Amino acid sequence: MTIVIDTRGPRHPEKAHRPDNAVPRKPDWIRVKAPVSREYVATRQVVRENKLHTVCEEAACPNIGECWTKRHATMMIMGGTCTRACAFCNVSTGLPDALDAEEPENVARAVKKLGLAHVVITSVDRDDLADGGADHFAKVINAVHAQSPGTSVEVLTPDFLRKDGAIETVMTARPEVFNHNLETVPRLYLTIRPGARYYASLRLLERAKELMPDGFTKSGLMVGLGETREEIMQVMDDLRAAKVDFLTIGQYLQPTKKHARLDRFWTPEEFASLESIARAKGFLMVSASPLTRSSYHADSDFAELKKARQQRS
């Protein structure tokens, strides 16, 4: 008999003593197929060979089958352990390992092997680092641009809260798209995103645009956490005031019974209405649907984003 001892510990130790929240059954419009294609397996092999983490796996994204079949993987740098404890997130929390100095080249090699025209690079929060990991982000962006000069890079960064100079470091590497998700409405921050500050996140997006006016900025929201339609519209106004170009809105899906309680499922018709409102408010690009995630269809969305700007100029 073989005894396997798991020394990794729980993924979310900070949630262990929270009351259970029943995980509701998903409606028909949120069902997705299990990932079984050969292309999916090939993408996973490239990720494993280069010792990379992906948000697709770590956050249990429902679109992983579709995206990996198209060889689109969202790289998650700086390890698989986050220093924050957001109530909605499925990424492991705890004390992270030291940064991998080889990761920038490993990411760039994987991007080149996958033949990506556009890549999304995100990360865990690294509050333990003096710069929040900003220099590591810049190194990854530079490595991808060096190995794949024709590939556009979209970064989805943490908030770099109280990390002076971090956003300036990232933007010196000139990512084509800078993304930082507000995630939810200000009223829910203390319970849903307790380690972050709404107006600090807004200022980060505004500062990114100041540093690279010719670049694109992007942010995302989840619905289903108890927010109101009016609160969402106010967030849209705040984002437009910060000159954000692209807004994504998707359905919150409760990962486990210990995560934030799902308030309700928004219908496809409600998402279509939110998209219409956001477009009327002046966003260059809006993606709103139950399965929308920050990096979902990011490659084709980037092409549409550039076209939308050209049409307005």
Structure description:
- Helix 10 links the parallel strand 9 and strand 10.
- Helices cover 36% and strands 13% of the residues.
- With 313 residues, it is α/β, with parallel strands linked by helices.
- The strands form two sheets. An eight-stranded mixed sheet has the order 1-2-5-6-7-8-9-10, with helices on both faces. A two-stranded parallel sheet has the order 3-4.
- The protein has eleven helices and ten strands.
Briefly characterize the structure.
With 313 residues, the chain is of the alpha/beta class.
Q: How far from one another are the termini?
A: 70 Å
Mean pLDDT: 88
Q: Give the helix proportion (percent range).
A: 25-40%
Major sheet: order of its strands?
1-2-5-6-7-8-9-10
Count of helical regions: 11
What's the SSE pattern?
HEHHEEEHEHEHEHHEHEHEH
SSE class: alpha/beta
Sketch the major β-sheet. Answer: 8 strands, mixed
Q: What would you call the shape? A: globular
Strand proportion:
5-15%
Please give the number of β-strands. Answer: 10
Taking all Cα atoms into account, the compactness measure Rg is 19 Å
List the uncertain runs.
Answer: 1-7
Summarize this structure as a short list of keywords or feature phrases:
313 residues, alpha/beta, single chain, 13% strand, two-stranded parallel sheet, 11 helices, disordered N terminus, globular, 8-stranded mixed beta sheet
Write the layout of secondary structure elements.
Layout: H1 38-49, E1 53-54, H2 55-58, H3 64-69, E2 75-77, E3 81-82, E4 92-93, H4 103-114, E5 118-123, H5 134-147, E6 152-156, H6 166-172, E7 177-179, H7 189-192, H8 198-211, E8 216-223, H9 229-241, E9 246-251, H10 268-280, E10 285-288, H11 298-312
Parallel strand pairs: 2-5, 3-4, 5-6, 6-7, 7-8, 8-9, 9-10
Antiparallel strand pairs: 1-2
Helix pairs in contact: 4-5, 5-6, 6-8
